[in-house]
Amino acid sequence: MIQVFRGKYFLKILLLFSTSIITLMLCISLALYFISDAHLEKQLIESNLELVGQVKKRIENELDFIQSGISETIVNRDVIQALYNKQLENDYEKIVPLNQKLINTSLILKNVYSADLYLPASQIVISSLNGATSFNNLSTQRKEFYQNVQALRKPYWNFNSPSTSTNVISFFQPLPVGSNFPQGYFSIHVHETLLLNILDNASLSDVGDYYVMRRNERIMLHKDKEKVGMASELPSEYTSRILTGSEVGYYKHPTEDKLLFYGRINENDWVIIYEIPESKLHSNRSLGFNMLSATGIGLFLSIVIAFIIATYLYSPLHRRLEVINKPTDSLLFHEWNLIDSVQQKEKERITELSTKVKNNQEQLLDAFLVKSLLGSQDSFRNNSASSLFAHLQNTYPVVLVVEVEKSNGSEQKGNQFIMDMKRVCRDASKQYDVKVICVPIKDSQQFAIILPFKKLLIDPVKHDTILNLAERIQQSVQNELQLQISIGIGTLQERFVDLRCSFLEALEALQFKLVKGNNRIISFEELRYTDPLQYPYSIEDKIIKALKNDHDQAYMDHFDQFVDHLKDQNCTPESIYHAFSMLYTSLYRALDEHNAVDNFTLNKFYAVLHQKNSLRELKKWFKSEILLEFMEKAEQLNGNRSGQKIQKIMDYLQDHVTETHTLTSVSDHFDLNASYLSRLFKQSTGKSFVQYLTELKIQVAKQMLIETNLSVSEVATHVGYTERTFSRAFKKITNTTPANYRLKHK
């Protein structure tokens, strides 16, 4: 055992550790004694001030939202005209749209009790709750209420108590807006629970009490309804300070154990009051005294602990010395001199590993982020990966999903392409206060761009900043890499662990390029503004009629109108898929009446439909495969009409063999689709259109070479060729030249 204490290193550990523990405990005890109480009090005050400020902001936002929600109603043409209509009470046709307008306004906003319009000129009150009522038929209380309203000359918020089980907060707007001589008054009554919920959700009532009072010191909002309308118990000098001081602040009650925090809403003369017992601030004062009392015992124990820890810390070195044959000729020796060579080798190995880790740091972070985006949020709780995203934990992330459009039918792949994408994204974001992270997530064709903002942006700055950065990235990729990309934007998250939520939102937004088209920037916030699909049944009827009547060109033209109609609508991708499914089903049923289709076609359609990522791809696929397939089935229903049509075309080519023909010119002449004509020609003759036309011309030429004395050049011109082209085509089919053919057969 004595050998454990040999060496200078052990003595140094023991002395240094003992001195450090004793000094540290004394310093910590004294420091905590003096600063703990002040720090805890300051921290609690700051946290409550921030909480009250947040509640004030949320209430202001709710009130502003209500005022903005009624802006359209108060400038409505029908409402303005009603102000000056003294005979409105007897005009039922004009009252009904006004009442409906009020009902719509109350439905748009949340927690609305009613929306009312008081028109003194016509002595009528129109309400979304009770309809139109003559002023003379109102109760005495309601008459006094509206008479008081007539004194208003500007918008006004006030507490109101109708004949209901709950109180309401009312907003009054004199009409017309901006006039000093109001002709009517619009009011919106909101349940008080709208604001009480904000206060309750902020947990203000956990350790104290809260209420909202007006400038006249009357309580207008309290969880205890009996206190509503009562005067506050605050001293007048402190009430004056609250009404004239800063918007958010606090003060200590002079006589009671209360600490009051307040937030003033200047626009409405409201004050949020939050009271907590002052003793809560000093509940931890005994911490310093208890710590100082325990210091004496700690000093004694620290000596014992220092010896034990020194022995424990020295034991690995002791075992290491035993491995390298520790010398025994001296009681005190320099341990590190003996293991210097071993240590040097370990340092070299650590340096090598550190370099490797540093080189792979970006790849490790990319792999971790991809797992977090495609997996679950549990990956953030993995201790082994915590060092990878430690610098991102206190940031506010938003995710952009970039999808590279196919270029010339080929996809960009390879590590060099990924590195180029990352470089372009980093360069594009240099002027913004964010260090962009770009990781590939789908075969190098989709990239997740993570923007970890250092501070939480506020609307509308947040959306504008993110949108500008997305536009910059799109333009840089287009200019430097010559690629077209679509970008989906998620919402800004307040915690980095919610990164996957923003990623999924960005993917959902990206799906809307089916509606909006390729090379677009689509924000998740835009998705709420979609409209229901208006299916074009009239166009569908025209398509089916053209199919049954074998009008091929009209059949295709009406389908183009069908797609244009969908393009003009602002609906969801699922609605577009559904519209194509409905059209397919209608075509299927139209032919299935005659057993002209089979289940193979139906199964194939639903397997391919959702693989199309844009309306252009859907149109091209549906037109080139589905419509043509139905066209062929329709032809089968019409018996030999297709054969008769091909024979008619063959006769036409025979009669006009001297002219120049193409598949397009012939299809236009007979009002057919070119692709359909090509397939029908191949099916009927076993030859392509070009092959048949060439053989026809050569057949006519062979007869003229044998039966006439025209030169080869004249024969070529007669069948629509130049002499050189004629000779090449003639030899390809007959394996001989026109001149040799004439000598052999004439």
UniProtKB/TrEMBL annotation:
For this protein, the record's Pfam families field holds:
GGDEF_2, HTH_18
The record's section on InterPro entries has: CdaR_GGDEF (IPR041522), GGDEF_dom (IPR000160), Homeodomain-like_sf (IPR009057), HTH_AraC (IPR018060), HTH_AraC-typ_CS (IPR018062)
Q: Where is the HTH araC/xylS-type domain?
A: 647-744
Which organism is this protein's natural source? Halalkalibacter alkalisediminis
Protein name as catalogued: Helix-turn-helix domain-containing protein
Phylogenetic classification of the source organism: Bacteria, Bacillati, Bacillota, Bacilli, Bacillales
User: Which residue intervals define the domain GGDEF in the entry?
Assistant: 395-526
Q: Respond yes or no to whether keyword DNA-binding is given for this record.
A: yes
Q: Which keywords has UniProt assigned to this entry?
A: DNA-binding, Membrane, Transcription, Transcription regulation, Transmembrane, Transmembrane helix
The regions listed as transmembrane in this protein's record are 13-35, 289-314
